[in-house]
Amino acid sequence: MASTATPVKPELLRTLPSDGVRQIQWRFADRYDLQMLVQSARAVARGPVARLVAAGGRNSHDWTPAKAELLEAFDKSGITAVFMEPEHGGFIAGPKNLALALVAFELAWVDGGAATGSLAGCLALAPIHERGTVEQQTRYMQLAAPPQPGEDRKPWRGAFCLTEPIPYVGVDTGMLNGKLRIAEWKEGAEPILQVEKRGRFITNIGFANFVTAAVDSGDERIKGSCMVILEEGDPGTFDRGTPTRKLVHQLSSTGDPIFNLRIPASRIVGGYDVKDGVIVPRHSHSEVIEAVFRRTRVTVGVMTAAKLLSAVEPVIRYQRGRFRGAETATPGSVRYELGLQAREDTLHRLVDVWATGEAGAALGFTAARVFDELDPLEREADKILGARGVTSAKARAKLQREAAERAANLLRLPAGHPNKAQLESDPLLRFVLLDSLADVLCPATKLWNTGWGAQMMREAVSLMGGYGITEDCPGFLGNKWMDAQLEATYEGPEAVQRRQLSITMTNPLFRAQFQTWIKEMRGIASDRPGTGACALATAMGMWLWTLERLQVSTDADGGRLYQSARQGVTFPLADALCWLLAARCQILDTIELEKRGADDPAVAEGLPGLVNFMSDLCHVQSARASGEVSRICAELVFGHNRHPAWDEPGYRGCYQQDELDSLEGIIPGIGSYGLDVIGNDGSHPKKAGPCAKCNGAEQFLSLQTKLSTCLTGCRLSKDRAAEAISKLMIPEALDYPA
Amino acid sequence: MTNGYHIVVCGSVVPDPLQTLEPVSTPTGPALKNEMMLPAVLDPWAAHALYEAANLASKVAGSKVWLVSVGPKAKLQQVMMTIAQRVSFELVPVDASASGFADSHSTAALLAEAIQSIPGLDRARLLVFGGWESASRGAGATMQLVGERLGILDQFQGVDQLRVLDDAQPDGSFEVLERIEGGRHQVSVCAGPPALLGWATGNLPEPRNNPQIGMANMRTVMPALQKAKSLPLPAGGLHFLSASPPKQQRQTRVVKDLSPAQIAQEIAEWIGK
Ligand SMILES: Cc1cc2nc3c(=O)[nH]c(=O)nc-3n(C[C@H](O)[C@H](O)[C@H](O)COP(=O)(O)OP(=O)(O)OC[C@H]3O[C@@H](n4cnc5c(N)ncnc54)[C@H](O)[C@@H]3O)c2cc1C
Question: How far apart are CA A329 and CA A111, in angstroms?
Answer without folding.
Answer: 35
